[in-house]
Fold this protein.
Amino acid sequence: MRVALVGNPNVGKTALINSLTGGNFTVGNFPGVTVEKKEGRALIDGKEVVFIDLPGVYSLQAKSLDEKVTRDFLVKEKPDLIVNVVNASNLERNLYLTLELTDFQIPMILVLNMVDMAERRGIKIDSKRLSEILGVPVVECVANRGLGIEDLKREILKGGKIPKRIGRSFEEKVRIAEKIARDVVVVRRRITLSETLDDVFMDKILGLPVFFTLMWMMFTFTFDVAKPLVDLIDLIFSNLVKLISSNNGLIFEVLASVVKGVGSVLVFLPNITFLFVALSILELSGYMPRAVYLLDSIMSKFKLQGRSIISMIMGFGCNVPAVLATRSIEDDRIRKATVLAIPFMSCSARLPIYVLFTEVFFPKSGNLVIMSLYLLGVSVGLVSALLFRTLIFKGEAEYIIELPHYMLPNLREVLMLTWNRVKHFLEKAGTIIVGMAVLLWFVTSYPSGNVENSYAGLIGKSIQPIFNPMGWDYKLVVALLTGFVAKEVVVETINLLHVNVAGMNPVQALSYIAFASLYIPCLATIAVIRGEMGFKWAIFSVFYTFSVAYLVSLAIIGVGGWLV
Amino acid sequence: MSLTLAGLVCGEKGRVVNIVGGRGAVMKLMAMGIVPGKEVKVEGRRGGAMLISVNGTKFVIGRGLAMKVIVDVGKEG
């Protein structure tokens, strides 16, 4: 028996599939699209039931991807039963979708979820009357606490009932939904905790400081708390490399560089996992849409939206998840402008470059220099976004986001969400890094053993003239080239090639780190930009970031030369 | 008096009389419960975004969409 869960966003469908299957569900994608599909199995009285959680939709009218996926599934896959999950606090609006579902003439059960929250808000629903009107069984549930699940299972085994067809056009359904809600809902309004929380989180004066405090906590969690794990992975890999390198032979040489390459990316795994845990909590608690509103006054000056800042802040950790996080931005034009601005956010992989150079050149004011580099990235990113929104992705922002009630996130949901995202990172970054590690080993070892006459050295030398105005050594250019694979490789290459960093002058050094901070996104980022916006825009991003980086470092040389 | 939702000030209420715009925008707004006859209250404004409540549900709506919602504020003139 196949059962489809259908309902509005924020009605607790994930919690429901979780308690129906006892946590036995997987998160994947619908074929060919990046729409999440959760599927789980359960044995109910010896009968196997497969649950498919369809994306949360408000109706089947508009042409969004989520709605198309839901409609196609109901038409083509013809599930045996629809479980329509409804938020009891907001029956009328949820009923629009319910009435649309009656058109499919598939057996149905209506679940009134979160009845506890509705009761706290003074809302009581006459479920018997509702069941008579719709002609389908109605079950009251509190899915996240497992209440009502046994009743629901019993009804599922009975197979539900084919609903009466109610209303023809969508407009008519809306009017009927209003009437039904008036008939079955009794309201005694009370102040809820959610509104009290909003008094603080959404306050005109307190709102922003609270937001920045939360962001700071997220950063500490991502970097400081994850640090011991990062060190551990680093230790394991460097010992592994040592062990492999102690053997002689071509195969061990290649293996060592692959392990080194993979290790250089995997060290960031704890950071990324912790970042995603923090973000999942923010998301599931219902705070995210509120942050969007709080930051809108700042972001709208750059023709972006509050939600863009969340992606951009994530970019400080790693650009890859930051680009993926733009999916939650509703307006496509804003989304694209944000994606193209993200590579300027200085990710954690660029930090080692800053540290290396500032220790040599600016031992006293290192922190200030590093801080300015972060600010440089943010400013360039925001100005670029404004440029894109004015010239390419024009138009007034069109979006509407529901503010869900605050919820205490369920640990399992947080972990599921995190794992699903980390897995993507591992798959995409992992395959690229392994390939590039082999390539890197090859171009630095052939046709001759020393770097100067290797392919990498030759390429570096032939490209070097472009950077003549900056006066960088060809080895530094090679380092930038290899940094294209992953930014942390820049420092690795500088060490490997024994570059005499101290031989530069401070202005040259500053222009170099500014360039390294802004230039071409790493391969993994380019890959996800391609995934989100297409090949053309990924190439555009490469050229755009390169040009901006070149101009900025040229400007630093110019101004610096004039000052010194 | 009729004006667009974007024209309301913070704390002001209005009744939705019409939604103008393409079918996509109209359907999207209606599906979220912003339908003719409903009372909308502006709870706050910040930059291009407005915080509104309809039927006890809160939304953040961008200026672009808010301009497509025609509301009646009840005052004559």
Summary: The longest helix of chain A spans residues 411-445. The domain at 2-187 of chain A is CATH 3.40.50.300 (Rossmann fold). Chain A has a mean pLDDT of 85.
